[in-house]
Write a structure and sequence with these properties.
single chain, alpha+beta, PmbA/TldD fold, 2 domains, eight-stranded mixed sheet, six-stranded mixed sheet, 9 helices, 18% helix
């Protein structure tokens, strides 16, 4: 795309948006620009990918269904009037909201774009070399560093004039250990709306701890199978909130009658101590932003309050169809992808127990740590979530380390079996979430520690 200043884009977008009367039809236009750097290193490969600014524009109107056009050059703006017709009697097809204005850039402590690529490569190589030389039982390691800077400009014919620039940085460290015939690993992942300062916390003592976590897995044993009292760490809590529960709340699935939660609004779905939130307003988290890709101001969406299902997850279309207020969940992977109702930062709110109390009250149970994989059945309401490791609890004491553990069962049964939530500060793990296998967007999930009276586990 021919580069223009954001002021020039503002001027062009305002003129186009004002040419469509809101009383006749809804219209919006989005500019999307992303640059990224990825550095990955293992024993067998070192990959470096630098993508400078990739940008495009999508404009759309709603005429009973969305009509969209996309293009990659601002010179094509004149085609919008030809491709998107002006019409009448469709203004009420999409609910109207007050327009607002914002121009916000997140400024990281250390701007990644100011760091030479060679310095970034050297940093990744240093981490790799440190881990590989730390213990002869470390046979390989995977280090990945990813940075993106995303700019989005949104205008519509309700008066929205919005711009946000968001940096996101992530690092993955996977040391792989081997002793005899046993091969295993643990992992470390960090990320957020931050810059190159992500490396400030990854000093030698942190790397040593990461290595020791993988070496500890060499001593792990298979977990038991059957129903046990369980404690889930924040990453496992997040898998329940996001994979097993949140996807069933996406309102497009509700309208398609492909969710087991479609008839549960204002009914009890979890124990009385459970409050589950989705919110893109938490500072510096991977799934945070100021406005969504439909110009809706980011807000806190209480999905479950004290066990009662209070809200679904809406974009503009589904909120209009269900007569609800969206909270900023209409999201695109890029200008070339469709909008869907999507999660942002999804988590259990903290409770009033200490972790020590939760453990001490269990005679024979299991702790699941490091959520690793989740899979849901949004129609039937079942789930399977796997932790990378865990620990036995015997007579109120955490004892043996365990290999990967699979937790499965009906989601609502799991939620209603929660009898304690710790008062630890909120912890959120970042990643990307797809709609199926497509349309990836940055998200986080988590909470604090939660305890279930009884749930089914097996080796993962």
């Amino acid at each position: 795309m021919t580069e223009k200043s954001f002021e020039e884009i503002f001027t062009a977008f305002e003129e186009i948006s004002n040419s469509y009367k809101r009383s006749d039809q809804y219209f919006d236009i989005l500019y999307d620009s992303t640059s990224s750097t990825l550095i990955s290193k293992t024993r067998s490969s070192e990959d470096i990918s630098v993508n400078t600014k990739k940008s495009g524009i999508v404009a759309r109107t709603y005429l009973g269904k969305w009509k969209e056009i996309t293009f990659e050059d601002l010179s094509s703006l004149k085609k919008i009037g030809e491709k998107i017709p002006r019409t009448t009697n469709h203004g009420k097809d999409i609910s109207e909201f007050d327009g607002w204005m914002m121009n916000q850039e997140i400024i990281p402590k250390i701007d990644p774009s100011k760091i030479p690529i060679d310095d970034k490569i050297d940093k990744v190589r240093y981490i790799y070399d440190y881990i590989m030389s730390s213990d002869e039982r470390i046979i390989n390691a995977q280090i990945r560093y990813l940075e993106t800077i995303t700019e989005r400009i949104f205008f519509n014919n309700e008066g929205c004039q919005l711009r946000q620039v968001i940096p996101r940085t992530r690092i993955f460290i996977f040391p792989i250990a081997k002793e005899g015939s046993v091969v295993d690993f643990d992992y470390y992942i960090a990320g957020g709306e931050i810059g190159y300062e992500i490396f400030d916390d990854i000093e030698d003592n942190k790397l040593e701890s990461i290595v020791q976590n993988s070496l500890e897995m060499l001593k792990s044993t298979l977990p038991p199978s059957g129903k046990y009292p369980l404690i889930l760490d924040p990453s496992m809590s997040g898998l329940i909130a996001h994979e097993s529960f949140g996807h069933g709340l996406e309102a497009d699935q509700i309208l398609r009658e492909r969710s087991y939660l479609k008839d549960k609004l204002n009914l009890k779905v979890a124990s009385d101590i459970c409050t589950i939130i989705d919110s893109p307003t938490i500072e510096n988290k991977l799934g945070s932003f100021f406005f969504d890709d439909e110009g809706i101001r980011a807000g806190k969406n209480a999905l479950v309050e004290r066990g009662i299902l209070k809200n679904f997850i809406y974009d503009r279309r589904t909120a209009s169809a269900l007569n609800k207020i969206p909270k900023g969940n209409g999201r695109r992977e890029s200008y070339a992808h469709p909008v869907h109702p999507r999660m942002t930062n999804t988590y259990f709110e903290s409770g009033d127990y200490s972790l020590e109390e939760m453990i001490s009250e269990i005679k024979n149970g299991v702790i699941l740590q490091h959520g690793y994989f989740g899979m849901e059945d949004p129609i039937g309401g079942g789930c399977q979530c796997t932790s990378k490791k865990g620990y036995l609890i015997e007579n109120g004491v955490k004892t043996k380390i365990l290999k990967a553990i699979a937790l499965s069962g009906p989601v609502l049964e799991l939620l209603q079996n929660i009898d304690a939530i710790s008062r630890d500060p909120l912890e959120l793990d970042g990643g990307t979430c797809g709609k199926g296998n497509e349309d990836m967007v940055p998200v986080t999930s988590g909470g604090s520690f939660i305890r279930m009276k009884s749930a089914l586990i097996s080796p993962g």
